[in-house]
Amino acid sequence: MKITESQVLHxxxxxxxxxxxxxxxxxxxxxxxxxxxxxxxxxVETTGVEPTFHAHALTNALREDSASxxxxxxxxxxxxxxxxxxxxxxxxVIE
Amino acid sequence: xxxxxxxxxxxxxxxxxxxxxxFCPCSAAFGLDxxxxxxxxxxxxxxxxxxxxxKVVDSGIKLxxxxxxxxxxxxxxxxxxxxxxDLPKGYQITQYENPLCSNGxxxxxxxxxxxxxxxxRIHMEEDAGKSIHDEKEPLSYIDFNRACVPLLEIVTEPDIxxxxxxxxxxxxxxxxxxxxxxxxxxxxxxxxxxxxxxxVMKKGAGILGTRTExxxxxxxxxxxxxxxxxxxxxxxxxxxxxxxxxETLLWNTSLGKTFSMRSKEESHDYRYFPEPDLIPIIVGxxxxxxxxxxLPELPAARRQRFMELYGLPAYDADQLTQTLDLADYFEQCVxxxxxxxxxxxxxxxxxxxxxxxxxxxxKDLLVTPSMLIGLVDLLKKGTVSGLMAKEIFTEMAxxxxxxxDIIKERGLEQVSDxxxxxxxxxxxxxxxxxxxxxxxxxKTQLLGFxxxxxxxASKGKANPKVAGNIVKELLEP
Amino acid sequence: MLDTARIYRKNDMSPExxxxxxxxxxxxxxxxxxxxxxxxxxxxxxxxxxxxxxxxDEDLIQGIPVAVKDNICTKGIRTTCSSDILKGFIPTYxxxxxxxxxxxxxxxxxxxxxxxxxxxxxxxxxxxxxSRNPWDMKKTPxxxxxxxxxxxxxxxxxxxxxxDTGGSVRQPAxxxxxxxxxxxxxxxxxxxxxxxxxxxxxxxxxxxxxxxxAILYDAIKGYDKRDSTCVPKNYAATSLDGIxxxxxxIGLPDIFFAEGLSHDVERSVRFAVSVFRELGAEIVxxxxxxxxxxxxxxxxxxxxxxxxxxxxxxxxxYGTRHGDDKDLFEMYCExxxxxxxxxxxxxxxxxxxxxxxxxxxxxxxxxxQVRTLIVEDFRKAFESCDIIAGPTVPVTAFGLDEMxxxxxxxxxxxxYTIPANLTGIPALSIPxxxxxxxxxxxxxxxxxxxxxxxxxxxxxxxxxxxxFHEVKP
Lengths: 95, 477, 473
What we know:
The complex is a heterotrimer. By secondary structure, chain B is α+β, with helices and mostly antiparallel strands.
């Protein structure tokens, strides 16, 4: 199957990736060929087969409802690219 | 206007009153300094993993039972992927397929008629942090204290037809949440949030109209105003031959209008897939039964019982069951003194007044049921007048002292002794010759004046009835 | 490691001396195997360990120098995943496995180079450039745990931790002539492992012998309540005596020996199988009919989960930010475009596509269904054998500049390692020979879930009877 340029752009947008034109073209080509390879799976009969999302059939990993001390604000902000008055700063969404 | 019907569904998010957050052990408390209530997990740091808080499942099951839902046996979580600064991981952990509860209903009453609102689903999910937008600079400030706080999302079927019904539903739902003690129901603070889906169509039309989504209604009043406005807006559009656009709208309280929330990304592709970091939760019969055993009598049932058992009018039943604690208080009083209407009056007037003035809950009121009944007893015995009783109540609420103690301390015993009163009244009659003669001449309405004087002179302690009789007696021509 | 532990206790060398020696080697390292070296911390712990041993501590882990792959969080030590987007990131928390190791006195030497975000098979995609294979500097050490493998092979550490999502511990172990284990999924906590594909990732021990790997595995495995996918079990220590091969059934799937497998690799692997037979094992044929779909299944599921796991790298709370002067959307797009390399971007794109509206059923769900069938195949195969053996990689280490243009052909090299990740079963790679060009070759042993001790035991026994693992580059 072929991925169109607008599909690549749409996916890049969903993934918040800015792609240079050469990369866009390259991805279009590579993704198409990779997805062509995935067509292999069409050969496999999977009607009625339950999908596997976890390696083992475990259930009920639960935690008791007790609070533990939080990390210090200093630690929380320690890797922040931009801070102001104890909050993380980001550019606004421009409509 | 009446050519059209509106079709509405509500999505309510309830913040849960758990000790810790849903996927990490940070406290779920509200109102702390920014970014002081976080940990690597709720901040979405590299390498961290979620672990589910059992109490969140408990709360969801309880609510599901209260809303007559089917409880899902095999629960899974999913990732809802989108980018926003207050969403630390770039996805929200929520339930997509197999929500915890489904297929329930909530009965409401509007203008005397009952209506059943279908509950489509209730599911568990995590909250995001908070963004505050700078007014001048193009910047936003993010606080992650609220990230990962547990939420239950309750989605109705599109069974709601008027704004009034929506408010009735919300009020009833909120009351149930508070009776179950799983949410504090505070819309202003955001622990209870409401979004609506609204469409209109011509009566009898086969197909539904285009739906808009409405957000940012932070009080019952605003829900009413916003929905009324939006229904009206859609009808006007259609009547002028135009179309309703499918969009998300924000209610603006100050301007009283809805505004479109157009963003760069028109369509949201959330790319839901099962959360690989969380394993399924099996909720078996035993767990459900255990939760069933903890359910209190729900508001509707309690109101009904108050009316039937205590013969109270609907208004009283409504008022007294506003909160579970208040209803309990009432019943504890009736247990001590079998005079439900009298107690109801006391609670609806003096008790509520004090609670409002002091901005406290009934459980913080210093006047316990037995103390209240103590006061009511003394009133019945005639030891104090009605007027005095109200004053005494206020002091009891201020100080926590019993009625008997206050009466003794302030010497407030109602004076009913005829002998003592006779002397006082004689003096008042003498001091008011003009009124006395007018009364003797036939102006019997001056009785009130004399009784008033007696109350003044006795500093409220006189028994007005007895005083009145003595006045009549002494002024008999 | 075992040798070091003995040497420490014989008083032949103190941990401090040993660590100093390694640090000096690392300083002169031309393999580019380390991203960050924590000399101060390492020496500090070495001194403490020295005292502990003096006072009679018998813990084998005490004072052992460990290299840690740079996608495992180490408190106070820069953790970058060999990516620009985490260039300056310093975690305020240790991964669970690090907590365990520190509690037992291990010496953390530093963080090793890898393919960016563990996506790759060469370390070529690292932001600090590729690591090199100590057997031939012009060749790749493999990936994504290439730095760890090179460091172990070159004697820059005693043992190392890597991570394995599709073969990233085993393939570099094979390329570098060392031993590497991908444990049963859920036996080692993932808390603190920077997630690539959550349902496939496991941290894996790497060393110059199966015994070392077994000891390190014991040290890091065990229940951690902070990882919901961690199995709530406590395990007995792995026996270091090896196992009696008599009666052990080793399954050999024909499909592992089909076209695409290098002749010299096949030769070495078949030789290793004959050694097992000599030692008493019974070799049986087994069938894994749907394994040929493994690569396709993996390259849908792994990128899909990764695309979601990597969404948190948005420049808001940590990491390098770009486009701060623009609006939010631009900031996200520039931060991620500049912070991620093209392989990471490619996989994010692939994963996003596989999950997107209209494609979820055809790709992610379909792949997950075929995954079930592959699990079935292995379950059936293990009815007739105890271990499934085969080559770890179809080839030996290739040149650093080879295969740069064709992602798909690199993906296909994961054909033997991917199934263990999809099924959650344990898999061990041990050296079993050398190629025509002298480069190391590994044989892979797989066992049913939670039977890690069987393959470790078989590996130990094999190494007690062969010398491949003792050859140094």
